Amino acid sequence: MHFFLLAALLPGLYWSQGVQAAPKLKEAGIERVCVPAGQQEAWKQQGFAAEVFDTAHAEKAVAPGVEYRMDVASATRVPWVDANGWRFLRNPGKEFYYDVPADKAALAAAEAFAYGANAAVHVAGDPADFSAMLRFLKGLGDASMPVLANFGIIDDGSETTAEVLNLMARRNLLFRVVPAPDPKLDLNVRIGSPEYPKADAEDPYSFAQKLRGDLGDAKRLLRIYGSEVVIGHLTGGEGHVRVHLLNYGRRRVEGMRVRVRGAYAHAVIADSGVKDAMLADFGASEGGTEFTIPAISTYAVVDLTK
């Protein structure tokens, strides 16, 4: 796909330090920049695809990654995933702004791409990893397929609902935010209804578990085994599903098993950091398709077709 057609689906590098950095960015392979008002034409004259981006009117995205916190009940360190997918799904029309260190720039780019977010990424440091991720993303083609989900969440705009969406995303309970119940989805949830009292949702951990139980694992579109730091996102249409897998941990995840609802005959994997990536133990049975990913780096995409 031509770069300028795909550019709208890729995150941009936000650069506020002036056009004197043009040689540095060209060396890093950057072709497109998001800049403050008044700098756009100067960057275009240097050969960049440049657009004005107003950080003051964009929603702030957190730096993606993992923190390890003590579990009071078990006195062990458990991973807390900082991710933005739920924010993107909640506000699909908004612009988002990342301000991240260089070692998180590639994950930020992959995350924004996976969810189709309109995002700019400011990198504090060398943008080489960000540029390398953009090259990988360009090779994946069109990322604008519809979002696939089990749950429809009728959003009241509250912080309580925000925490529920966060926990659902972290547990790979796939949802869409809908204005009214959608009969095409497996389960529609309105927090504050008799079935789902707001008081219950104030404990988002228990509430997410309740939603999982109400749906039933057999109906889940996506299940991930063997990792607490990989978040999945599903897009697709008739006969073709794309599984986006984002690794928020600091190391590769090895031997992760994935199950997608539905029978698929063919699969192709691309991984941002694993050359010639392949799947293992691929097969369809009992209404689902399962496979093992021997190693996943920052971002992997699995395309399944019938």
Characterise this structure.
With 306 residues, this protein is an alpha/beta fold. 23% of the residues lie in helices and 36% in strands. It has three domains: 3-62 and 88-138, no CATH class; 151-219, no CATH class; 222-305, Immunoglobulin-like (Sandwich). It has nine helices and 19 strands. Strands 3-2-1-8-7-4 form a six-stranded parallel β-sheet. A four-stranded antiparallel β-sheet has the order 12-15-18-17, with no helix packed on it. Helix 7 (159-170) crosses helix 9. 36% of the residues are buried. The model is unreliable at 1-8 and 72-76 (pLDDT under 50).
The secondary-structure class comes to alpha/beta
Proportion of beta-strand residues: 35-45%
Percent helix, as a range, is 10-25%
Outline the low-pLDDT stretches.
Answer: 1-8, 72-76
Count, helices: 9
**Spatial strand order of the main sheet:** 3-2-1-8-7-4
Query: How would you sum up the global shape?
Result: globular
Number of spatially distinct domains: 3
Supply Rg.
20 Å
Major sheet: size, sense and barrel closure? 6 strands, parallel
Instruction: Summarize the helix and strand pattern as letters.
Output: HEHEHEEEEHEHEHEHEEHHEEEEEEEE
